[in-house]
Amino acid sequence: MAVSLKNISKHSKKVSTSVSTATIKPSTLTTLQGVVTAGTLVSGDVVTLFTLPENVDVTNAYIFVTTAPTGGTQTLKVSVGSTDVVAAVALGTSSGVYKGTFATKANVGSTPQDVTVTLGVANLTDGEFRVVVEYNEYNKVTGELTN
User: Could you tell me if residue 23 is inside a domain?
Assistant: First the structure.
């Protein structure tokens, strides 16, 4: 016997797939969370990019290197709350490339969570990078809760 849940409203709900992005360009930074940076991100710096609303499932994340940094040994790691969704990956010396492998899906839970990047290996003074996070929204399906 087959059972269909599609006509039972409590089991079917509209879901919205959303994408949030942030661009990081170290040379234009003057302050990082209240601290003067003089256009330099130091290895170990954690940069908060945006906040995801509660009860979303993160389904993909990656870094797009718009303009490669000098040196290319610097790494970026992308996290949602305490979950690393893109492991630390070297930015390299090529522009116009995607970096990072999506490590794990993440559920934000009942409290909105920050999306952060952590810089590793070497300081970053130049280049431009776009961080992209894709997720499914269950409570609000118009994207108005994403900051």
Answer: yes
